[in-house]
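Replying to the earlier thread about multi-chain prediction with a worked example.

Input:
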Amino acid sequence: MSTKEESRGTLSSTDFGVAASAFILNWNTICSSFPQWTWVLSHHQVEGYLSLENILLSSTQEEHGELSFPGPGKHSHQEDPIDVDDATLVHINPCKVHYYDLHIIYCNSYRVPVLYFRAYDNDGEPLECDEIEKDLPAYSKKALSDSKWTFITQEEHPYLNRPWYKLHPCGTSEWMKLLFHADDDALAKTGVAIELYLVAWLSVVGLVVGLRIPFEMMKQL
Amino acid sequence: MASESIVVFAQFQSAVDEGFWHRFSSLKLNKLGIDDSPIPITGFYAPCSHPQVSNHLTLLAESLPSESNEQSSTAATSGGNRNRCPVPGILYNTNTIESFHALDKKSLLKAEAKKIWDDIHTGKAVEDSAVLSRFLLISFADLKKWTFHYWFAFPALVLDPPATLVDLRRASQYFSLEEAKSVSAACNEWRNSSLTADVPFFLVCVDPNSLATVKHIKDWETCQSDGNKLLFGFYDPCHLPNNPGWPLRNFLALISVRWNLKSVRFLCYRENRGFADLGLSLVGEALITVPQGRAAKTGNGLGWRDHQCLPNAVGWEQNKGRQVSRCISLAKSMDPTRLAISAADLNLKLMRWRALPSLNLNALSSMKCLLLGAGTLGCQVARMLMAWGVRKITLVDNGRVAMSNPLRQSLYTLDDCLNGGEYKATAAVKSLGRIFPAVDAEGVVMAIPMPGHPVPSQEEDNVLEDCRRLHDLVDSHDAVFLLTDTRESRWLPTLLCANTNKITITAALGFDSFLVMRHGAGPFSSNDERQRLGCYFCSDVVAPIDSTANRTLDQQCTVTRPGLAPIASALAVELLVGILHHPQGIFADGELANSSNSGSCEQPLGVLPHQIRGSLSQFSQMTLVGQSSNSCTACSSTNIRKEEWNLSSKQSIILPI
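Result:
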């Protein structure tokens, strides 16, 4: 990574690829019991992004039954009785379960990685921002409201063409600059700035969505 | 002592990813149209990986066949991996909600059950065991409302009499420590190999030395040696400690038919964090008795081995204990209008977040703007207002779109000029809707009554009606833009606005110069004697007269340098936004640019001038302040008091003086 980029807190797209490979290796080794990150190639097979999907969160929120009924407030259709036998157990999950998907995608215009995320329940129904906030741990909620660098917006996912939430990248280079400048000499000696870029970046960004980087990974910074 | 209870299987649960509906909608819109033939799809599932939550049979965008391929008659099973065992399924999508409810669920279930039955008898299920978990999905995709009604069925062949449960316990309690270690290792190997990771049914052989091997079920014959423990293993999506998962139902059917076993020892394989978890997994023993019912009827004694005797099937998914279909609404993420709205809001919110924290987006989106004139100025002002988040816009113009208009009037295209030309007000509204569907735009085709213009007697009533309409329009809006092409057409609106103290912005063009100004507050707006800012007419000494008669052609059509209108319109809208954010609003004093007045630095949007005059020939612009005149023909209190509000007074001004 050029020192010019480094001083601006940004990185090139090739460097992003390098950083991502190092990150996956690192994470999957150190945190083997955690869900694993994977590298997904876009359909053009040229660009790729990091993906961590199906993170399960048991929510304390109450189950609400409206979703199950046919159509919002319309006809109450009289269904024919369907055969059910005694050998069938119908079980309902005791608590509402929320699933989260996280993608880390490189942004060409800002030259930084961007965290995209979405949340949904068992029925596949996407969760709203306020419902997501209820799931977040207290330190995340604080980070979101306090920091002038965290701004969640909903925008079209660059590859999947559906709206996902993302942390707006326009502040990223500013605080990445701070992180890297803090240890200029050390980094210059070891020369592993690129490999550590994503760990450093995720250690800040992850806080906002309640994703904690395991301590073993942080030690390297 | 083992209790003689029947095996109760936990029903399979479905989960449809949003991406599936997106992809299906696109397939329906682009390729299928009203074709409602059944579509082969692929479901994905994996063994349970969480002690408190069961896994689901999932549908993803990849579950649907690729749009570019021809329709394949065989089930399209896309590639799987250890987390995604592919399972064939079929989708019946109807074109109306009525036909959705009218589908014959019994026979559809029976048809799919028959496929499983056939696969068992032909041996296909032994080769490709995933077909045992074949499923059915019926749906109605409402692509106007972006809601999806759907219902899954997981066909299970019913054992009659049902299988009885001899024993069911945790696998860790069944195996010895040595055996457990070996079984875990063998299972993990099976799960890690790309050849077998997505094969959901398998055999576990444990030899007398506690060495376990996992084999493909077609290798059943090779496991037949004394002293070997043989278990029929399957990926169990269910997490419950007392119930095996649904896939076991058809697995038992297969075992009974192909190998005629009466006692079956099975392994409900479950995982934790990617590895075999024998504490979560279950081992049980089931007893299958030769089904009597059908065999008794046919009397051939073969029972289930008779391919012709299709057993009953169950499997429609219960929805929170009720036998109803499910419905999901994805309007927020699929409806283009909603997406446009949230994108527009995003832009403004970004502005507020990054640069202008005091931006009052609510005030902008709730403001109602009246635009008098839908020409070069009107079109640009309307667009700029929308860009600032204003949603309610009314345009007044009695003209039709002429062939020369589209070049300078940014809401019109050639189509609007054909057949004599659409009314501008109507065309403008349509155009705004095409740019931003959520705009609340209204067009009024009406002439603005002007002083000094002769009115034929038969038109008197119409003109009076127009006066009344104009009065009502001004009354029902918050801000008025005077964007017409003559001086005198601005007179009555100015008077009406002054009377009701509405924010009024005037833009006027010369050949290469422009004026953009905000009118001061109305004469009755406040009790104090402070000097009001002037209106458009305050600096005039003569009454507005007919300026269009007796002039040459080029004087009648306003000929201006094209760059002027966009500049003036933009300034007019920015001026309005400035007023909205000024604590004194319409009463704000006129400020000058580059002034040393400390007050101007406090406003986040900058100075708020009274008048801006610009010249293209100089590429210059200056700000001015003008006070109101007591003898103004438009906004002075004496004049307005004279008008009162009855129409006979109107007559005296409007009709030939």
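The helical segments of chain A are 3-8, 13-30, 129-135, 138-146, 172-181, 184-190, 193-208, 215-218.

Feel free to reuse this layout for your own posts.
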